[in-house]
Write a structure and sequence with these properties.
Elements lengths: L1 H15 L2 H31 L7 H17 L3 H11 L2 H4 L6 H32 L5 H27 L1 H4 L3 H14 L11 H7 L4 H4 L1 H5 L9 H32 L3
């Protein structure tokens, strides 16, 4: 494990050495929360004028803050992997006495350890200043703990997308599809309870609800699933994703060996 801890420390140091990139994420994060806070405020005022319930704007803003926190904390390691494959660096990196996939994942988790606390602080301060405290303060602590696990699983799936560069060359289309599925099936902007029942049942067959809607909903009055069930679900998808990624990588390595590197 010491080898992978070294890669994690390297990822942590590199993330610290790029404050501009983190600042860009922070500014974009605040902008998103500000825009949606204004939209929901306008909707609440219009429904109040018509004599209809105003809804829970604060709860919605906290939900969005947590889903965006999980999403924006995960480093985009897939593009680093793509660069290694394109340049051919992977041919000599896999000869090191450490798993190349494990090293890349550890490197990404090291970067996550820098980004997650900063983005969490921004999420909580911004949401609190715009909407007040969350409706379930205890649930917020559980949501944060589970959200960290979800962000790590998202990082693992980013590694899986990066491995696809062995066949695709350019992984941008694959990442675009993954991102849009995560936005829609993961309930990035709205809790899944607002979607049709059939859509929710189909979404639950994928890992996306457990990555975004699940952790964020723990801070609301209607959690998607209990925290324990959500953790087991995340572990299941993490193991399945890692098995598929390892199988794909091993096949790619055999292909490299057959073609002479």
């Amino acid at each position: 494990m010491s080898k992978y801890l070294a890669f994690a420390k390297l990822g942590l140091r590199e993330a610290r050495a790029e404050p501009g990139e983190l600042l860009g994420r922070v500014l974009f994060f605040v902008l998103i929360l500000g825009v949606f806070s204004s939209i929901w405020r306008a909707v609440a005022e219009s429904t109040a004028t018509m004599g209809q319930p105003t809804g829970q704007r604060g709860e919605m803003l906290w939900y969005l803050a947590l889903t965006e926190w999980v999403l924006m904390s995960a480093p985009l390691v897939q593009f680093q992997i793509e660069d290694d494959i394109r340049r051919g660096d992977v041919a000599y990196q896999i000869t090191r006495p450490a798993s190349w996939l494990g090293a890349r994942l550890a490197h990404g988790l090291g970067a996550l350890a820098v980004r997650a606390p900063v983005m969490l602080g921004v999420a909580c301060v911004t949401a609190w200043s715009m909407a007040g405290p969350p409706t379930r303060l205890g649930g917020l602590g559980v949501a944060i703990a589970v959200g960290l696990v979800a962000a790590a699983v998202v990082t693992l799936f980013h590694v899986a997308i990066g491995v696809a560069a062995f066949w695709l060359g350019d992984i941008a289309p694959a990442y675009w599809i993954w991102q849009k599925l995560l936005f829609v099936l993961g309930g990035l902007l709205l809790p899944l309870r607002f979607y049709p029942a059939l859509f929710v049942r189909l979404a639950r067959l994928t890992p996306f609800p457990a990555l975004l809607a699940g952790p964020a909903s723990l801070a609301t009055n209607e959690p998607l699933m209990p925290a324990g069930v959500l953790l087991v679900t995340l572990v299941f998808w993490a193991l399945l994703g890692w098995i598929i990624t390892r199988a794909a990588f091993n096949r790619a390595v055999r292909r490299l060996n057959v073609n002479g590197g």
